[in-house]
Amino acid sequence: MNVNEINAGILAYLGDAVYELQVRNYLITKNISHVNNLDKESVNYVSAVSQARILEELMKKNVFNDVELYTINRARNYKPNSKPKHTDIKTYKKATALEALFGMLYLQNNYERINLIMKEILGD
User: Pick the catalytic residue: 16, 39, 88, 124?
Assistant: First the structure.
């Protein structure tokens, strides 16, 4: 399967689930024992504002290779069918780009790379 042929919105849709699962797994391993606390802590990683900030930080660190940057740029240029409800379009597009990256890596079965990027994000 050539992931470059898959719509960036579809990659982001899948990547959203992959990324959120990684974050939830991380938070559970931190022994946070109440669901409300897990939800509050997860916002630091999974909100559009947080994802946009995380993408910017990773870009400054030059974490991504050329293939990953291609997917990120393709997703940032993706034109959604609807307007975001809780953030501006620029932030939304950066968040979509991060999600699309995770979708691409997942479809490529590149779990090692997913884990490495998550370590950068989580600081572990």
Answer: 16
Q: Give CA–CA dist 124/121, Å, rounded.
A: 8
pTM: 0.93
C-alpha to C-alpha distance for 104 and 4, rounded to whole angstroms = 9
Phi, psi of 6 (to 5 degrees): -90, 135
Helix then strand then coil, % of the chain, to nearest 5 = 75, 0, 25
User: 9, 38, 34, 35: which is closest to 23 by C-alpha?
Assistant: 38
16 is catalytic: yes
Written as one letter, the residue type at 85 is K
Query: How many Å apart are CA 110 and CA 102, to the nearest integer?
Result: 9
Backbone angles phi, psi at 62, to 5 degrees: 55, 45
**What class has domain 3-122?**
mainly alpha
The 10s digit of each residue's pLDDT in 10-45 is 999 999 999 999 999 999 998 888 999 998 999 999
